Amino acid sequence: MSIEIFKGPLIDSIGRKRFSHSLRVMETAVELALVHGVPVKRTRIAAILHDCGRLKDCTNLEKHFKRRNIILDSDSGLNTNLHHAILGRYIAYDRFCITDIDILNAVRYHTTGRIDMSILEKIIYLADAIEPKREYEGVKEIRKMSVKDLDEAMMMSLGNTCSYLRSNKTEIHTNTIECLEWLEKDRK
Ligand SMILES: [Fe+2]
Ligand SMILES: [Fe+2]
Questions:
Q1: pLDDT value at position 33?
Q2: In terms of C-beta density within 10 A (0-12 exposed, 13-18 middle, 19 or more buried), how is residue 36 classed?
Q3: CB 33 within 8 A of CB 43
Q4: Which sign, positive or negative, has the C-alpha torsion 177, 92, 25, 120?
Q5: Ligand 2 ion: residues within 5 Å (CB)
Q6: For the chain, percent helix, then strand, then coil, each to nearest 5?
Q7: Ligand of minimum distance to the alpha carbon of 20
Q8: Which ligand is nearest to the CA of 21?
Q9: Of 126, 137, 131, whose CA–CA distance to 160 is shortest?
Q10: N or C end of the chain: which has fewer CB within 10 A?
Q11: How many structural domains does the chain have?
C-alpha cells in the first residue's frame, strides 16, 4: 500500500499544514524504524495517519463520536486535545481501511501513551514529539536519546508532558501516568 493514496483525502480532512506535520512525523518515524528494526511500510502508514482525526473544519467532534458510538472515558472527556486520537483510530479504520491493530493502536495512543505499548506505538509517539519543527526545552536531548534507547526517550518525553500539564494545571491522563510507571518499573 503506497501512502500516496492517503494524500488527497488527508489534505481534504486535516488541511495542508497538519498534513505537512504528518509528513515530517513520517520521515522521523522511518528513521527510528530503521534504527529499531520495525517494518518501514507499517511505520509510514501509521505516521501519515496519526493525526487523521484532527479534522480541520470541526471544532466540535461530538457528531463524529455519536455516529460511531464512541463513549469518552472520564479523563479524555476533559481534555479536548486528546479527542483527535480517539476519533483518529476509527477514521483510520472506516475511512482509510486500516485493519492492522498495531497501526490502529499507534494512532489511538499517540497522545497519551499506554501500558504495553508496542515498538511501533512508541516510535509514532516519539516521532510526533520530536519531528524537526518541534521546538521546546529538552527536545534535542529526546531526539538524541530516541535513536539510542527508545524507552529512555519515552520516559523523557512523557516526563516533559507531565511537567507541562502540571504547570498548566491540566489533568494528566491515566494512560500517561500508567505508561510512565510501566517504563520506569521495567528499568529497575
Ligand atoms: Fe496528534
Ligand atoms: Fe501530530
A1: 98
A2: middle
A3: yes
A4: positive
A5: 51, 128
A6: 70, 0, 30
A7: 2
A8: 2
A9: 137
A10: C
A11: 1
Q: What is the CATH number of the domain that holds 72?
A: 1.10.3210.10
Q: Which ligand is nearest to the CA of 18?
A: 2
Grid cell 479523563 — which residue?
75
* In the predicted structure, residue 74 carries a pLDDT above the cut 90: no
Distance CA 41, CA 157 (A): 25
Q: What is the pTM of this model?
A: 0.94
**In angstroms, what is the C-alpha Rg of the chain?**
16
188 Cα to the center of ligand 2, angstroms: 31
What is the maximum alpha-carbon separation in the chain? 46
> What is the distance between the alpha carbons of residues 28 and 12, in angstroms, rounded to a whole number?
23
- Distances 123 to 6, 78, 110, 179 between C-alpha atoms, Å: 20, 26, 9, 14
Cα atoms in the Cβ-side hemisphere of radius 13 Å centred on 13: 23
Full residue range of the structural domain in which residue 46 is found: 4-187
C-alpha 130 to ligand 1 mean position (Å): 12
Ligand nearest to the CA of 28: 2
Average pLDDT (141-163) is: 97
**Which one-letter amino acid corresponds to residue 15?**
G
Average pLDDT across the chain, whole number: 93
